[in-house]
């Protein structure tokens, strides 16, 4: 049973049941009791953020929300009830549902509401950790170590929030939770079925996660944007659609609305916009019990008025709620395009939320959407990786480069370099590809070697690191990119010709990168080092400390298994490779910098995951500034952080500090 007792919550229990609730049913009943209590006039609405998954969680976390607190704090929510916006997609995948859903979040946030989000992925994988970036784009890593769909990155970046692994719900997770309960005997005597057990579990999950704050503040968010992955009508999304159909009644009218993202293709030489695919997908959605309140129609050109009218009459949606979502110059224009059509107004009206009249997106427009289009001076970054045919595999890295370019006033050009094309073997097999790869590397202003797994392309990446080191070209190595830098240095500076990582060369006489699990050394499963960890800065006299404006530590996300061999650090440092950031035990190398090089910085963590449009990641900003010849100027005018002699405790420094402090100076 939980740690609740009557002393803690007598007023909450009594209005509803007047009795103690049996242990085995506590989750559902307590939540219901608490909700009812709220409606019965209690001042505080309590929610347990750990409720439904672990039925017998002994340590539930309680969040107390003062009724109407959002309204008092300017949030303008008119009742204490959580509001939900469901975003579904039709016709084809890849329409930009994630960007649409994130944009709705941006608008609601700009209306003064606290927004969270849930991404539902109907695949059977429990999480995205085992999925190939080739197929599915990058694995986005969260603070808590969750390996999630890349759409969670969109939400974090657009809304400047930090999500948890529970914000990504998959079929695998729901079935796992229900089957665990079944094995524990929680449904004794019952036949466990998709309806109601899976559908109830989905609803419980959504409701619980929606109430968990994600913006670093206490209290419950006002609105949760739920994105249902896949396309309406897919077999695998059926349980979710059914759960959400029921959910609209669970949460009540006025607390739930659906936005359907669809495609309006253009056919034929006359360029006629076709409504039939949208008509069919809306018909499918409605037959499943969900009526869209808004249609977001993707098209190359703005929707013609006649097309809008036609969609309105065939799809049971008012014409004013048929939004044109035509192609725009950058994705940050999408919220502005929706705002211009009054989407925020409609959603707020349907959900009984205030704030629409005082929406303010001016900063978003000036400092992000307009800014990006106004950049003219080019900076070219060679991205030396393995999945270069599918740039979604490096989505967060690309975004982090874009954020840094906005801050540094540079127009970004990424030259994708397939690492293996830099290798000698390619020269004989495909000379044109080899020459092209080297031409791109040589003409770049900066080189970035991002994360990766396995040995393919590694030798090419090592050549890229060597090129950057010996030609004073700015280099940023991320995770594998740091291991590559260390291997290259070992081979070409220390003369350990066969130095390597044991990830792909177990027999190397110089294992400079080794397997170093945090937990068991014998058990290989689940040994990835995942999520946020502290990196303690070893000196203030390094580029990283200056960029982070930190004198003590930085907090970034990880996803790796191998690390620099701590036994060899002395040899590296003696030759000029400085390990300026380490974990709090001092044994795991986190940041490496090369002495006497304009910018040769590499990190074991992934700084890209915490980069935001208005808060660029410091290391990415460093790369872009160095590649633009502005790093020295940038660093020179700033006070070097001073190490506090009495380190009384670690002080985090926000990624955004730099941008804020130096915004004026960056307008070079
Ligand atoms: N393959 C390396 C490791 O497991 C690097 C991982 C990464 O770049 N994310 O340590």
Automatic annotation (TrEMBL):
Q: Which positions fall inside the CTP synthase N-terminal domain?
A: 83-353
> Which biological process annotations from GO are given for this protein?
'de novo' CTP biosynthetic process; pyrimidine nucleobase biosynthetic process
> Any idea which GO molecular function terms this record carries?
ATP binding; CTP synthase activity; identical protein binding
Identify the enzyme class: ligase
Residue intervals of the Glutamine amidotransferase domain: 390-624
For this UniProt record, give its keywords in alphabetical order, as a comma-separated list: ATP-binding, Glutamine amidotransferase, Ligase, Nucleotide-binding, Pyrimidine biosynthesis
Family according to the record = Belongs to the CTP synthase family.
Free-text function comment from the UniProt entry? Catalyzes the ATP-dependent amination of UTP to CTP with either L-glutamine or ammonia as the source of nitrogen.
The molecule here is called CTP synthase
């Amino acid at each position: 049973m939980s740690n609740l007792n009557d002393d803690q919550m007598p007023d909450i229990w009594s209005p509803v049941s007047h009795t103690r609730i049996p242990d085995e049913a506590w989750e559902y009943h307590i939540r219901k009791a608490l909700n009812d209590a709220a409606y019965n006039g209690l001042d505080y609405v309590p929610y347990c953020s750990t409720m439904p998954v672990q039925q017998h969680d002994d340590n539930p976390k309680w969040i107390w929300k003062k009724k109407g607190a959002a309204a008092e704090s300017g949030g303008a929510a008119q009742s204490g009830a959580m509001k939900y916006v469901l975003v579904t997609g039709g016709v084809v995948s890849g329409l930009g549902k994630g960007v649409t859903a994130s944009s709705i979040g941006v608008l609601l946030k700009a209306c003064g509401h606290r927004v969270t989000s849930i991404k539902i992925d109907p695949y059977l994988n429990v999480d995205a950790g085992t999925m190939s970036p080739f197929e599915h784009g990058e694995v986005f890593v969260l603070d808590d170590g969750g390996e999630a769909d890349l759409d969670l990155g969109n939400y974090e970046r657009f809304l400047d929030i930090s999500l948890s692994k529970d914000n990504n719900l998959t079929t695998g997770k729901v079935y796992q939770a229900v089957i665990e309960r079944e094995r524990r005997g929680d449904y004794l005597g019952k036949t466990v079925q998709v309806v109601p057990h899976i559908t109830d579990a989905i609803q419980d999950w959504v409701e619980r996660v929606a109430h968990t704050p994600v913006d670093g503040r206490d209290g419950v968010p006002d609105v949760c944007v739920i994105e249902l992955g896949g396309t309406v009508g897919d077999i695998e999304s059926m349980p979710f659609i059914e759960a959400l159909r029921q959910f609209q009644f669970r949460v009540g009218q006025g607390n739930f609305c659906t936005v359907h993202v669809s495609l309006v293709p253009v056919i034929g030489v006359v360029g006629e916009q076709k409504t039939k695919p949208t008509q069919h997908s809306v018909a499918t959605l409605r037959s499943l019990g969900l009526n869209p309140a808004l249609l977001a129609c993707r098209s190359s050109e703005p929707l013609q008025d006649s097309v809008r009218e036609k969609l309105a009459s065939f799809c049971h949606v008012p014409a004013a709620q048929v939004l044109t979502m035509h192609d725009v110059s950058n994705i940050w224009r999408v919220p502005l395009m929706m705002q211009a059509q009054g989407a925020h107004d409609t959603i707020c009206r349907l959900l009984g939320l205030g704030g629409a009249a005082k929406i303010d997106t001016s900063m978003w427009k000036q400092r992000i959407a307009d800014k990006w289009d106004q950049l003219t001076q080019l900076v070219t970054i060679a991205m030396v990786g393995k999945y270069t045919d599918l740039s979604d595999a490096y989505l967060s890295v690309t975004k982090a480069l874009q954020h840094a370019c906005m801050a540094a006033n540079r127009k970004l050009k990424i030259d994708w370099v397939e690492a293996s094309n830099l290798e000698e073997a390619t020269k004989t097999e495909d000379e044109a590809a080899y020459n092209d790869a080297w031409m791109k590397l040589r003409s770049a202003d900066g080189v970035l070697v991002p994360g990766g797994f396995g040995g393919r392309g590694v030798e090419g990446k090592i050549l890229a690191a060597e090129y950057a080191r010996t030609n004073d070209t700015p280099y940023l190595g991320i995770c594998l990119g740091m291991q590559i830098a260390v291997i290259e240095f070992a081979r070409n500076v220390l003369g350990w010709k066969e130095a390597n990582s044991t990830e792909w060369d177990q027999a190397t006489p110089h294992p400079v990168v080794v397997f170093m699990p945090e937990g068991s050394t014998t058990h290989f499963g689940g040994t990835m080092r995942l999520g946020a960890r502290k990196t303690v800065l070893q000196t203030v006299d390094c580029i990283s400390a200056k960029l982070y404006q930190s004198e003590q530590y930085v907090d970034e996300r990880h996803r790796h298994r191998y690390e620099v061999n701590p036994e060899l650090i002395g040899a590296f440092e003696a030759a000029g490779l400085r390990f300026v950031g380490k974990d709090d035990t001092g044994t795991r190398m986190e940041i490496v910098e090369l002495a006497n090089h304009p910018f040769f910085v590499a990190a074991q963590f992934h700084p890209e995951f915490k980069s935001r449009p208005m808060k660029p990641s410091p290391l990415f900003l460093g790369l872009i500034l160095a590649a633009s010849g502005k790093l020295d100027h940038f660093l020179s005018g700033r006070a070097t952080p001073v190490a506090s002699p009495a380190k009384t405790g670690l002080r985090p420094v926000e990624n955004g500090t730099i941008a804020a402090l130096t915004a004026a100076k960056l307008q070079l």
